[in-house]
Amino acid sequence: MKTVVKILVIFNILSCGQTSDLVKKWGIVGTPLGRARPCKGNDVVDASFEAGLSPEEENMYHLNIYEVFPAQSRIIIKFDSEATVTLVNDTVARIRTIKSDLEVFISFFKPASYFSVIVKGPQTGTVPYPTSIVVNTVEYCEHPAPGFLDGVIEGYKGTAHVALTVPTGSCGRRKVTHTELIVNGQPTKPGDWPWHGAIYRLEQYSVKYICGGTLISKTFVLTAAHCTTINGEPVLAELLSIIFGKYHLTGGDVATQEREVHQVIVHEEYNARKLDNDIALLKLKTEVTYDDYVQPACLWHANAYKKLPTGTIKGTVVGWGFNHNDQLSSTLHQVTLPKILDGPCIKSNTAFFGRLLNNRKFCAGYRNGTSACNGDSGGAYQVFVPDVTGESSANATGAWHVRGIVSLALSRPNEPICDNTQYTLFTDVASFVGWIKRHTEANN
Description:
Elements: E1 6-8, H1 19-25, E2 32-36, E3 45-50, E4 60-65, E5 74-79, E6 84-86, E7 93-97, E8 103-108, E9 115-120, E10 130-135, E11 138-139, E12 186-187, E13 196-203, E14 206-215, E15 220-223, E16 229-230, E17 233-234, E18 240-244, E19 257-266, E20 280-284, E21 298-299, H2 304-307, E22 314-319, E23 333-340, H3 342-348, H4 350-356, E24 361-364, E25 380-386, E26 398-409, E27 424-428, H5 433-442
Parallel strand pairs: 1-6, 21-26
Antiparallel strand pairs: 2-3, 3-4, 4-9, 5-8, 5-10, 6-9, 7-8, 10-11, 12-23, 13-14, 13-18, 14-15, 15-20, 16-17, 18-19, 19-20, 22-23, 22-25, 23-24, 24-27, 25-26, 26-27
């Protein structure tokens, strides 16, 4: 979808006094939180931001250039995402968009002693950062420093994940050499999916595999609420255990780690009948140890879309779910499924998807016998985000991000087994990043 820079013609440029005096006198209304350098190596460009704003307004800052601007000066600013650029006083300059939706053009019809504009992101919480600032044909931002506001966002935690780069560290990256990308429905090999865990539940006197889950830190696993509840109520934590680094469903693995569950956290608005808000967290009693076969996945973040190749989003589901013989697979399998728009999904089966699909779920899959199935519930719909924007080669480096959770599929007529000629519904993790962060941070 096309990103649009919105312009309000109100601007703040002072046209008297010396630059040094203005720097000392100038300030923003409210409590200043701090200043940052949005362009490395250029001290005449800075950004100012304040604390105490509502969550909808936290992604706002002042972009300042401390230079003297003669009449007829021109500034071109390019941003990395949608922005509302506000001019507080339009008596010395005009502003408009040019060339592309991400650039604004400022022209001075009177001299000014320095330049300041308010930059604000959209209601989704994304913070727009400058990637280029050209003043009278001179580039003032050769080395942009995006992300300077991310660390001070205090509101909904999901809105803080706006950096264009993938999260730092080793999340979502395999440690075992992998020679090829995904082949639909084919077996994996040990170490391919080191964040995927097998969830077991004690039933009477035996332990039974029930679902998949995704390791997102040393102590937390992300899964579906229906995997951790009975009749809509959370099961006792002591009935659950999780094994990581697992490849064979029954025995034969080289480096597994089993952990007991300390706490079951089910979404407060989980609806067992319609599987709305079908998401849960499992806090482990003891930390896992990261090694070649156990690693965390990355959580989805707001700007991951910008890094993806153009075209249909495809995610991979792994698990020991039912195979073509309607039996649990003995080894971990994987399947790559395209994300489907709501319209075609609902039209494919209006009675089912029209009733259950909402803005916190999404549809994915094929209608050709390739799908997630019984036993795959709770596992991740994971999307590969390349380090280099748009790269799609088999040798691309990057990280796997949890975009969804396997939630619900249509059953075959008169059989409690998934109909693999229908699409699958997934919990939309992008809608729950704030919820996940609140609970993982509060329980650490």
